[in-house]
Design a protein that fits this description.
With about 150 residues, the protein is mainly beta. Helices cover about 15% and strands about 45% of the residues. A hairpin with a 6-residue loop joins β7 and β8. The termini are far apart.
């Protein structure tokens, strides 16, 4: 019985090793991060961030599509093939005119053997811009500044 169990474990181990080797062939997608956290940003701030894509496979990686989860999240990706070992960038721009929490996703579609559909996320919070900021300061006759008109 011990010989049978040993042979079974070795056979399963070999099968797992062969399967892992098959996945290592072809284009493989990997990213520098899965989530970009803006933290807290002000309304109308720059809502751009960058994800770096690496082809860690053995064949060219082709990104055929990048799609944001809504109209406020606009990704831009290069559709030129990424050669093995090379990188490309996906730029995501969030519309910071909208106040409140950010929790959006971008779906990347490619020919990657490991993840043909990859979802990355952006998160954070947009705070309202201070309405009084930048308002002119007037002086009273006593010389003390005031914001009253």
């Amino acid at each position: 019985m011990k010989k049978f169990l040993t042979a079974l474990v070795l056979g399963l181990g070999f099968f797992t090793f062969v399967q892992a080797q098959e996945v290592a062939n072809g284009p493989l997608i990997s990213l520098d991060k899965e989530v970009h956290d803006y933290g807290t940003i002000q309304q109308n701030d720059d809502g751009a961030c960058v994800f770096t894509v690496t082809n860690s496979g053995t064949e060219p990686l082709i990104i055929s599509r990048c799609k944001g989860s809504c109209g406020c999240t606009v990704p831009k990706c290069d559709t030129d093939p990424i050669m093995p070992g090379n990188t490309s960038e996906i730029t995501v721009r969030y519309d910071t005119k909208r106040i409140g929490p950010i929790n959006k996703s971008v779906t990347i579609t490619s020919n990657a053997a490991n993840e043909p559909t990859k979802v990355i996320r952006i998160k954070g919070k947009v705070e309202a811009a201070d309405a009084g900021a930048g308002a002119p300061v007037k002086s009273t006759s006593a010389g003390a500044p005031t914001n009253k008109e």
